[in-house]
């Protein structure tokens, strides 16, 4: 019996309890049934009371409470509006601050999930001063000696007065008009890379010049935005993810340099030794070239013996005045739009059966741990170091081997040759969280007909680093292999015709739309590749597959070479009676199975995807420009954009913000969305 039944039973006179005991407690059992209904009624009454308040109401009640105050539902594509509870709760608070710039900024961040800044353009109007209303901060002509104000011109942080432009801001044609409010949004995120070895310049420098990028190329450094739950004032440059500028970083080095901030340098050791901020100088380390265009030095090298370390945040370069006593380690942030490929972002723990665990760290050799794991096991790398090695991976028949980076690490495997994958019958190899350059993953043809399983999750096979410009990152010659890629960036794939490949939220990059992104292995450039399934992918380069089983919400950026290309089509499927292509952009002249709601709808339409960049490493890599037709930007099955950024639901975020702006703008004002990145 529960406590309610006990309480009711104790209220009975003693004589009834005695008689009930003599008869086997039938009365107590009856009261137990009654008590269950009483408890249910009490719980229902308590819930009815809780349902009066948005903080405690049942989920199904929240839309009804919102309807009482005129709340309009939004696309639940960001956490703050995935459930209407928080948004409904904030509605009254927002309306009390209706029309203020800080409220509009908070609103933009909540409904889009992007950092934002609101700009009242009437504050930036140049005007003739009036003695009855002086505006001492508004100068019609800019002060050319104030380099900080000049640095932020035409950005969200511009403070220079402008002449009026009477066109409507909603058309994107103008900004500086009295009724205009601009909402700047930053779509590029700042991703960290922690304690990664700086890469020495191999050509010049004598061991004094390094790069932040572990791949040894130039890379812009980003600041990490400071989290702000409640916006009490308008966003400052430190609150949004932006590339660091030289002069700004030099003037505010204390805000950006040091552990836990945007960047810092250390010398390897146990523990690593931080290079003090007083020894850091910010300058331009651009190339100095001779008359033949050859790089002979970097500009502004610190003087020998000064103990200084020069940093160029625009190029991601480091120059030491004196040779460092140990290997320099760099911690910094780089810009990208989506969490795919190798990275220190939250990936979640892999779902694999319990297996023996081998750990590797500090750049130690991977091969001994891989040898111990051949009969099933996990090799886990604990840091973001560079592993200079060309391992050979063997998995015994029926076993599973996992080679992964621990959550929050992004190691680089810098190979100097092919990485051989030897899998026994029914064996599975899982690669998780790696960046691999210089060495093609190669699975040979095995003499039996048993399947092999290869899974790549959150990995990068760096495009353009496998020999030729379109050298393959993965070659599979076993006809019964099954390959699965999830959230990967990869160089071209060469998969044998009888194998199966499935890609989800991936980029396949041949570095040019006229190179080959997918085909069969071997020297024959016309060899057909295996059966292909693609979901939310962007493919840069030509594709030749035996069967395009499914392509959904994808973009194919491909074109035939002018003047005698031997390929029949940029996207070429041999079996066109099987498979389906849906809600995707298909290059004109492609040979595909049946299409459903694909673009362009006919050969006469002149629409094509336009990208911020198609170069791996750029912050806007594979990001669609706003000038791209809405038939592509909103052409996926759920009205999101086609391609690898489909899962960001950027069109829905824009719609959410426009819906809310209609409710919160003051009368007579007009808002426009402006992308800071």
Q: How many β-strand runs?
A: 41
The percentage of residues in β strands lies in 15-25%
Structural class: alpha/beta
How would you state the average pLDDT, rounded?
A: 88
Topology diagram in text:
Elements: H1 3-10, H2 14-22, H3 26-50, H4 62-68, H5 79-82, H6 84-96, H7 101-112, E1 116-120, H8 147-151, E2 180-185, E3 189-197, E4 199-200, E5 209-211, H9 246-251, H10 253-256, E6 264-267, E7 273-274, E8 280-282, E9 287-289, E10 295-298, E11 309-312, E12 317-320, E13 328-336, E14 357-360, H11 367-372, E15 377-381, E16 386-388, E17 393-395, E18 400-405, E19 412-414, E20 419-423, E21 428-432, E22 435-437, E23 441-443, E24 452-457, E25 460-461, E26 474-476, E27 481-486, E28 489-490, E29 493-495, E30 500-504, E31 507-509, E32 516-519, E33 531-535, E34 538-540, E35 542-545, E36 548-552, E37 555-557, E38 571-573, E39 580-582, E40 594-596, H12 630-633, H13 650-664, E41 670-675
Parallel strand pairs: 2-41, 8-11, 14-15, 15-18, 16-19, 17-20, 18-21, 19-22, 20-23, 21-24, 22-25, 23-26, 24-27, 25-28, 26-29, 27-30, 28-31, 29-32, 30-33, 31-34, 32-35, 33-36, 34-37, 35-38, 36-39, 39-40
Antiparallel strand pairs: 1-2, 3-13, 4-5, 5-12, 6-7, 6-13, 9-10, 11-12
Explain what the structure shows.
By secondary structure, the protein is an alpha/beta fold. Helices cover 17% and strands 25% of the residues. The chain has 13 helices and 41 strands. The protein has an 11-stranded parallel β-sheet with strand order 14-15-18-21-24-27-30-33-36-39-40. An 8-stranded parallel β-sheet has the order 16-19-22-25-28-31-34-37, with no helix packed on it. Strand 11 and strand 12 (317-320) form a beta hairpin. Helix 1 packs across helix 3 and helix 7 packs antiparallel against helix 13 (650-664). It starts with a helix and ends with a strand. The relative contact order is 0.09.
């Amino acid at each position: 019996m529960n406590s309610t039944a006990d309480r009711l039973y104790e209220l009975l006179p003693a004589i009834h309890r005695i008689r009930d005991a003599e008869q086997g407690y039938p009365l107590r059992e009856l009261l137990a049934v009654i008590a269950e209904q009483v408890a249910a009624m009490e719980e229902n009454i308590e819930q009815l009371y809780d349902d009066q308040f948005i903080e405690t109401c049942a989920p199904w009640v929240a839309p009804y409470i919102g309807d009482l105050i005129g709340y309009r539902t939004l696309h639940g594509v960001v956490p703050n509006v995935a459930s209407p509870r928080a948004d409904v709760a904030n509605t009254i608070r927002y309306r009390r601050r209706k029309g203020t710039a800080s409220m509009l900024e908070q609103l933009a961040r909540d409904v889009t999930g992007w950092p934002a800044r609101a700009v009242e353009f009437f504050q930036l109007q140049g005007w003739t001063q009036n003695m009855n209303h002086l505006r001492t901060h508004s100068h019609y002509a800019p002060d050319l000696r104030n380099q900080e104000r000049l640095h932020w011109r035409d950005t969200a942080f511009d403070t220079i007065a402008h002449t009026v432009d009477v066109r409507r801001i909603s058309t994107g044609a103008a900004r500086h008009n009295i009724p205009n409010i601009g909402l700047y949004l930053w779509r590029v995120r700042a991703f960290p890379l922690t304690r990664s070895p700086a890469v020495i310049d191999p050509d010049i420098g004598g061991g004094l010049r390094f790069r932040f990028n572990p791949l040894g190329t130039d890379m812009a450094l980003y600041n990490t935005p400071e989290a702000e739950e409640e916006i009490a004032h308008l966003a400052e440059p430190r609150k949004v993810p932006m590339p660091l500028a030289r002069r700004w970083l030099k003037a505010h080095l204390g805000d950006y340099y040091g552990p836990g901030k945007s960047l810092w340098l250390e010398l390897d050791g146990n523990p690593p030794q931080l290079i003090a901020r007083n020894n850091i100088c910010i300058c331009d380390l651009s190339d100095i070239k001779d008359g033949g265009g050859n790089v002979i030095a970097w500009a502004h090298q610190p003087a020998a013996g000064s103990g200084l370390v020069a940093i160029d945040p625009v190029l991601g370069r480091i120059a030491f005045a004196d040779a460092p006593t140990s290997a320099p380690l760099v911690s910094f942030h780089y810009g990208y739009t989506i969490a795919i490929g190798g990275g220190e972002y939250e990936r979640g723990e892999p779902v694999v059966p319990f297996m023996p665990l081998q750990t590797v760290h500090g750049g130690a050799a991977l091969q001994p741990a891989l040898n111990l794991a051949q009969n099933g096991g996990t090799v886990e790398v604990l840091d973001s170091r560079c592993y200079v090695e060309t391992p050979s991976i063997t998995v015994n028949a029926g076993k599973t081997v996992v080679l992964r980076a621990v959550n929050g690490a992004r190691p680089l495997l810098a190979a100097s040759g092919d990485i051989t994958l030897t899998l026994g019958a029914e064996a599975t190899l899982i690669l998780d969280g790696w960046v691999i350059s210089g060495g093609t993953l190669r699975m040979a043809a095995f003499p039996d007909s048993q399947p092999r399983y290869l899974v790549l999750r959150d990995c990068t096979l760096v495009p353009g680093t496998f020999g030729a410009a379109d050298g393959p990152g993965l070659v599979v010659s076993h006809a019964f292999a099954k390959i699965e890629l999830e959230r990967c960036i990869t160089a071209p794939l060469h998969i044998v015709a009888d194998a199966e490949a499935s890609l989800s939220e991936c980029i396949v990059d041949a570095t040019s739309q006229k190179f080959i992104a997918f085909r069969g292995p071997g020297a024959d450039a016309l060899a057909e590749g295996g059966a292909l399934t693609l979901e939310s992918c962007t493919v840069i380069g030509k594709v030749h597959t035996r069967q395009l089983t499914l392509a959904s919400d994808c973009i194919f950026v491909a074109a035939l070479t002018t003047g005698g290309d031997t390929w029949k089509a940029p996207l070429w499927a041999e079996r066109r009676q099987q498979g389906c292509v849906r809600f995707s952009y298909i290059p004109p002249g492609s040979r595909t199975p049946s299409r459903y709601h694909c673009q362009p709808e006919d050969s006469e339409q002149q629409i094509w995807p336009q990208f911020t960049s198609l170069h791996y490493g750029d912050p806007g890599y594979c990001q669609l420009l706003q000038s791209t037709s809405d038939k592509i930007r909103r052409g996926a099955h759920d009205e999101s954009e086609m391609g690898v950024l489909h899962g960001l639901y950027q069109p829905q975020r824009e719609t959410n913000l426009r819906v809310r702006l209609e409710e919160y703008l003051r009368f007579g004002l007009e808002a426009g969305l402006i992308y800071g990145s």
